[in-house]
Amino acid sequence: MKRLLLLLLTIVYCSGQAQENPLICIETKSAALVLKVGKNKKLYQTYFGSKLNNNQEYEFISKENTKKFVINDGNPLIDLRHSAYPTFGTNNLFEPAIRMTHNDGNPSLELEYQNHTTQKIDSNITETIIKLKDPQYPVYVSLYYKTFAKENVIESWTEIQHHEKKALTLYNYASSALHLDADRYWLTQFYSDVVEEMRMEESQLTRGSKVIDSKLGVRTNMFAAPSFFLSLNSKSAENEGEVIAGTIAWSGNFKYTFDIDNNNELRIISGINEFASEYNLKPEEVFKTPVFIYTFSNNGKGQASRNLHAWARKYGLKDGEKPRLTLLNNWETTFFDFDQAKLGNMFVDAKTLGVDMFLLDDGWFGNKYPRSGSVSGLGDWEATKAKLPDGIGFLMEKAKETNVKFGIWIEPEMINEKTELYEKHPDWVLSLPNREKSIYRTQLVLDLCNPKVQDFVFKVVDDIMQTKSGVAFFKWDCNRMMTSAYSNYLKNQQSHLFIDYTKGLYKVLDRIKNKYPNLPMMLCAGGGGRVDYGLLNYFTEFWASDNTDPFDRILIQWGYSNFYPALATCNHVTSMGNQSIKFRTDVAMMGKLGFDIHVGGLREEELKFCQQAVAHYKRLAPVIWQGDLYRLVSPYEDSRAVLMYVNEDKTRSVLFSYTLHPLTDPNYSLVKLEGLDASKKYQVKEINLMSNNKNTFEESETIFSGDFLMKIGLKVSSSKPENSVILEITDME
Fold it and tell me: Which of 263, 421, 439, 634 is deepest in the core (most CB within 10 A)?
């Protein structure tokens, strides 16, 4: 009732405000964020939720109902208590978005509205800039809101600048402050560790502060993912409930604070984690925060995910509307034990499978200290002569001969002590003075705050691309976090390290993207320890986890599907797990398909199945990569998982069903499909069958109406454990 009243009051006042106290409506196709300037010149958030209907009249709003919303300055609008960008040092009692100390030692900040502009960038994108200023100090804060109308996504970030005589110190510098008014709040967060990434956990928020953050420097979502769902009033289901999905385009330390005040009102402060990161902002320098990306859905988490997927494919992911390369990786076949001849044969294996590319993983570099294991070579990026006497140019020639593309693994941000690079530049690593070196996975982190190190990392990629025809693909790894971090380059500005490292990485990637704009790259970090839309601006895809056991992988891939589209999530068929080759392949096909198996070790019927599966995948990939995702049965709620993708015109769909390990014969119920056209007729056909196996789906090639499929459903799940079904659903008109 409270939310309805707030909505109605906002509608009434959204259209007729005096310019001196403007109401700023930031709208997408179906959501709205409303900001209001009070007579005290402060900027407030008054509403966020379903889009307003300004033409509708609400005659039943009585004077009594509105009285408590009349504030001292006489504006009869929703109570102006929610500062759009809360400051510290005056009368704010809760978590601030910004905190600083001025040249004269004053630790307070006030922000008053100056002006705002709204610009239509194209038919879909609108950008609003609101300029604020401290009335006593030359400090300026600009709030940016970019809306993507069709996708119902808002990007929000902040720019901070000042004209004081000397540098001032920033302690807090959030990207966004978002306020919500509901009876209860339910937070869905995603916890992680090595081999159990993106595990979902939901809990009700209570009074006080709840923080999700990272202090790892790199590989920052090793323990906590920078994404969340926030449900209002009750737990949201897949297709029901009011929910906000949020994530951030930042590849360093992040922080979300969910702060419920004494009135049960929630503010979400999002941005860079300010921990150990006080920033000395020079006069005229602009401090730009990373972009906070969020969407509102009143139709559950599924719609929120589809909003983000649609935005990501068009705006958030490198080449998000272009095809991806299927591949064969050598790691689980050879590990470090390979030579030129063995790798040459793997191009033939890739050709046999029918995939697009052979990807050479770790172990191909280093001469004085050859990369024969994890303790040496990392940082010396020349081909090991003992393994590759003709260099990687030989492999590029092999790619031409077989018409299979060639990709390569690098980990250019990290270094072993046992390298020529470390002997020449020990000052290039992050390491504390007067302390024992902190080694993790036999590695140290290179100091990307240092422009010379940035040049070196760029040169790693550039040199490989300058070798003959270059490679078609990079797998960019990052296998450790920062510990005992100290930059020789930063000297007395150590609190800038976490921010400047991330910005240094972006500078390198900007150079690579500018010089090689069509080069696809996979983002990897000890598995999925580094997945965010800051880096996905430069990478076409990411490696979700080093755990490729299909049972575990279903949960991992399910978690990522909440925020990232299928074509961004790399899934490989490997030897991990005891499941059949069919089950392993079917699980990998729900995202971007790859293989990391010994092709020569496959039985004849297994090889034939893989070849057919690759052919099916290539035919159906446009639906999987660009279609709308519908999660039908969650593995968190059942001993199975069912999901489907539907293309934009609802003529083609692919359904995946996986039976996990039920304790008893579950006698699964029918599954109602979603996203189809009720008026269309669809043929349903099971694909990806092993030779001599009967269809698991007994009604294969039957014709159904879309209405029947969505209202009645199909028996898509077998009760047999380790069973998987893929259905191709095609419009018959």
Answer: 421
- Asked if 298 contacts 50 with a C-beta cutoff of 8 angstroms, the reply is yes
How confident is the model at residue 693, as a pLDDT? 73
DSSP run (H or E) holding 506? helix 497-515
Kindly report whether the global pTM for this prediction surpasses the value 0.90: yes
DSSP 567: G
* pLDDT above 50 (res 17): no
**H-run or E-run covering 267:** strand 265-272
Neighbour-count burial of 663, counting CB atoms closer than 10 A to its CB (0-12 exposed, 13-18 middle, 19+ buried):
exposed
Rounded distance between C-alpha atoms, residue 298 and residue 48, angstroms: 12
- CA atoms of 362 and 385, how far apart (whole Å): 15
Residues in a beta bridge with 444: 415
Of the candidates 335, 336, 357, 438, the residue with the CA atom closest to the CA atom of residue 346: 357
In 510-549, DSSP assigns E strands to: 521-523, 541-543
Query: Is the CB of residue 473 less than 8 Å from the CB of residue 357?
Result: yes
Instruction: Find, among 411, 415, 409, the residue nearest to 375 by Cα.
Output: 415
Distance of alpha carbon 213 from alpha carbon 99, whole angstroms: 19
Going along 121-204, which residue ranges are E strands?
125-133, 139-148, 153-162, 168-173, 176-181, 185-191, 199-204
Which is nearest to 595 in space by CA: 605, 581, 578?
A: 581
Burial label for 194, CB within 10 Å (0-12, 13-18, 19+), is middle
